Amino acid sequence: MLLDEITNLPLEGQAKLLRAIENRQIVRVGGKKQIEVDVRLIVTTNLNFYQEMKRGAFREDLYHRLNEFQILLPTLQERKQDIEILSREFLLEANLQLDKRISGFTPEALTQMQNYNWPGNIRELKYTIKRAVLMANNGVIEPHHLAFVQHDRDDSRFETEAWEEGLSFGEMISRFEKKIISNAITKCHNNKTKAAKMLQLNRKTLYRKMSELKIDL
Fold first, then answer.
1. Residues 6+ apart with CB under 8 A from 190
2. Which DSSP state fits 196?
3. 42 — phi, psi (to 5°)?
4. DSSP secondary structure, 116-165, as one string
5. Do domains 2-66 and 76-212 have the same CATH topology?
6. Is the CATH number of domain 76-212 1.10.8.60?
7. Could you give the CA distance from residue 28 to residue 47 in angstroms, rounded to a whole number?
């Protein structure tokens, strides 16, 4: 079982998790019966466990119970040779999700990604590629499609506002997708078919995205 971002778990939840690990028993939500469990746990975090324990945000006893074996993954900044490989995988995934046919990246776009520090690591790369696929309209991703990398005036303002409001990468992407789709529909005078063609999406994908993003135009 994978528990992602374990350091985000509140102290009350940490106590319950420690008890479940120690007793090898759980109680389902709304239930009363103790259920025996036998699982292997893998937990992840992008924070420093020692710093979190020092400031009282993570239980030391839970840390020692979980810390039987540790794998330290280098940041994306430390393994930039993986950026192109990961980008192409995320491109395929975004094409499927958005029903688009973006074939790849221009050399300039790849250079921009290689030169960026990626403070959000792989998650930031993934959502940057998805957003670029949504914006691309000529079959390839160019530098100006990489708004979190190529900081032009408008996009950097969007990025700064998003960070100041404490949004996750997923929330930032959803906000920008909503902005792009809403603008396209407005420019096409509420003609969804024309807006879909402008965005290089089929109508079903456009309507699905409008529903997901709660766009009512």
1. 217
2. H
3. -120, 125
4. S--TTHHHHHHHHHHHHHHH--SSEE-GGG-TTTS--HHHHHHHHHHHHT
5. no
6. yes
7. 29
Are 143 and 106 spatial neighbours (Cβ–Cβ below 8 Å)?
Answer: yes
Using CB atoms within 10 Å of the CB of residue 202, give its burial: 0 to 12 exposed, 13 to 18 middle, 19+ buried: middle
Q: 165 near 154, Cβ under 8 Å?
A: no
Q: Are strands 140-141 and 104-105 parallel, antiparallel or unpaired?
A: parallel
User: What is the DSSP-derived secondary structure letter of residue 56?
Assistant: T
Q: Tell me, which fold does domain 2-66 have in CATH?
A: Rossmann fold (3.40.50)
Alpha helices in the chain (DSSP H): 11-23, 49-54, 60-66, 83-98, 107-115, 121-135, 153-164, 169-187, 192-199, 203-212
pLDDT along the chain (217 residues), means of 10: 90 93 89 89 88 93 92 88 95 92 94 88 89 87 76 43 54 79 84 83 84 83
Per the structure block, which two tokens stand in for 168?
């996750």
The amino acid present at 127, given as its one-letter code, is Y
pTM, two decimal places: 0.58
Token couple for 109: 């776009």
Q: Where are the domains of the chain?
A: 2-66, 76-212
